[in-house]
Amino acid sequence: MQRVFNAVMATESEFGQIGRALQVVLQRTEAAWQSRNENVSRESPNLRLVAVTKTKPKEMVLEAYKHGQKNFGENYVQELVEKSNDEELLKACNEIRWHFIGHLQTNKVKKVLESPNLYMVETVDSLKLANELNKTWQKLAKGRRLKVMVQINTSGEEQKHGVSPSECCDLYDHVRQNCSALDVVGIMTIGAFDHDLSKGPNPDFQTLIQCREAICSKFGLAKEAIELSMGMSNDFEHAIEVGSTNIRVGSTIFGARNYKPKVEVAQQDPVEKASKEQAPSERHGESSHQDHISGMANLAL
């Protein structure tokens, strides 16, 4: 049975709020970026914002793209296929970069890799999947290596996908040595939700950082050469502060997700959600602020 998306349609006012919500996220992102210590800044010199549009209509993608956002993430194969092949998006968003950030079964690999403007698969969690991605990408002859990340289950939760931290070096090295069509650029985690920062740094983020250290130590790699994809709507600022180079933010920009058809859902104002009910200390023009962020951390490119 085909999954039903976008059952609760967004209103025109919600589309208009996306640009403002995106600006608030960028302002919060810059503040977190500026608060990092020297070691973190040296080891994680770049930062990318992936706007997650899971269950959201294409009109929201268009609106965010108009405000300078280029990287978008999808969790579901069918939704990625539909949006990436949409004629209106293909015409209006010629520089869009799609990230697949959900669990990927090997029998769905071809569908994902055939998606136009696919930029990265962030959820390589097994040798079998890595090999299938490599084989399929070679057959498609795209003329470039496909960027991928190794997914690590840092929280140890059974419902989460990813290799264990003890296996991260083996999978990373397998992709690096045996998958010539793939460019393994980093490691990714979801981690446990709702960590209380008053109790200290998020241990799942610390585990991912330790995995990067283990990979670098074992294979003689520089830390800045390995990206860290961690941090979502509820914790992206903390993730940036400790070294994330790739944050995945959805509901804070686009509002609450829509899963169930024919059910009215009271959605929180995206701008209110993005600002945590506090107005930013400064308001910048959208184009000038976006240019500043892009120059600082490659956020929207």
From TrEMBL:
Q: Does the keyword rRNA processing apply?
A: no
Basic and acidic residues: compositionally biased ranges: 270-292
Q: Which domain of life is it from?
A: Eukaryota
Q: Which UniProt keywords apply?
A: Pyridoxal phosphate
Show the PANTHER family listed in the entry. Answer: PROLINE SYNTHETASE CO-TRANSCRIBED BACTERIAL HOMOLOG PROTEIN, PYRIDOXAL PHOSPHATE HOMEOSTASIS PROTEIN
Which named protein is this?
Pyridoxal phosphate homeostasis protein
Question: What GO MF annotations does this protein's record show?
Answer: pyridoxal phosphate binding
The Alanine racemase N-terminal domain, residue ranges: 33-257
Ranges for the region named Disordered are 264-301
Q: Which organism is it from?
A: Patiria miniata
Q: Does the keyword Manganese apply?
A: no
What does the UniProt record say this protein does? Pyridoxal 5'-phosphate (PLP)-binding protein, which may be involved in intracellular homeostatic regulation of pyridoxal 5'-phosphate (PLP), the active form of vitamin B6.
Q: Which family does it belong to?
A: Belongs to the pyridoxal phosphate-binding protein YggS/PROSC family.
| Modified sites of kind N6-(pyridoxal phosphate)lysine | K54
